[in-house]
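Two proteins follow. First one:
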Amino acid sequence: MATTQLSSHSPLPVLAQLYNESGLKDASAGGLMPSQAHEGVVDLVEELMTMELSLREGELVADVLICVLRQAEKDLCISLSEKLARAENAPLRLLMYVANEAIDIARPVLRNSPVFALRI
């Protein structure tokens, strides 16, 4: 049986902290993420985007961040989109999710992400 190797700096502790700070465990009843969590969440996402992630880790990060975006208020989604737009290693599935959100949220990723840059 093959084992999956994590990158030298595993995103798992950061994802656990993100899960706790974002209020996802408390938002399962359908509520929005508390606004006081916004700054901490943005900082944690920025930390995640500086890590060198394996494909599997990137998918895990995408899963968690999509859950965060679904629970977040619009201003946090825009802030996260701005951070993701500058990340060279953001998971493609996450960027596609953001790109399909409302234009205010999608705009930073669509305009600035290297993934969506026009190559001529």
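Second one, unrelated to the first:
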Amino acid sequence: MQRQCTRLRIIPASVCMTALFSVSQLSAQMESVPADDGKSMIGRNFMPRMVSTFYASDRRTISEDSPGMPYIVDEISGEWCRVRRWWIRSSELISLEAAPAYYTEQLRNGHDPLSVFCLRGHAWYERGEYQLAAFDYSDGIRISKDNEQLFRYRAKAEYAAGKTENAISDLRKAIELRPSYELSTLELAWLLSTCPDDRHRDPETALRLLATVKDATRVDPYPSRVFAAAFAAAGRWDDAVSAQEKALDGMTKKGWKENRLIPAKQRLEMFRHRKIYIDTKRTLDWHTPNRPN
């Protein structure tokens, strides 16, 4: 997932009470998670608290952006945690196990419902509770009907939950709302090229979508990965191999670790042997760091 939702407006928490889970159960869950200390945080997935700040490498300059999901801690230095190239105080992170309970409590305490639904949706998604994530994103959409990011988030959750038609509809809506944000187009093209359900695999439509992409490197450093999958699904094997080689070359020059290169190398061999790639994990997160695909 990309980044925290920007707070757009505040509405009374009473409007959102229908979305609350059993607070007593969630609170018990939150209290059962022990405080994190030092090295035990490394390699684990966390979520940000409602008030949290990411810093640049000097730990003094507030970063203009933030890491996308997942927030996996790579390094500990005193009170600081490094999540990829960003730093955040450990006190501003909450364990993935405790996050849904924490966000539910924040909703009851009057925090901006849109931000809460977005972040709690992310937490459910990271925990593999895709339908619960979709419910929260839907509540967010009811507040902000023209927020294309929420339609993208819900599409990812619905697709992971096996609801392919819903995911396609949401991605089309995201494209309609913001055609210039080409990540939505790439994600729909990826789904139509790699879907495990051949009823929804449509490489010709995927290629037509990709023909509208002008400069996808703004949202994905290596968009040729998507072109390669679409070419392969359409039986254009030479084009698929060429596009995948271009992506792999860029990843290698950028210094990607081997665990992130392996899936790309495997797909290249598949295309060379005239085999299409099927995304059995049903993920639209191929472009997200820490999710090698």
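SUMMARY FIELD: The CA atoms of residues 56 and 206 lie 38 Å apart. The chain has two domains: 17-140, 180-293.
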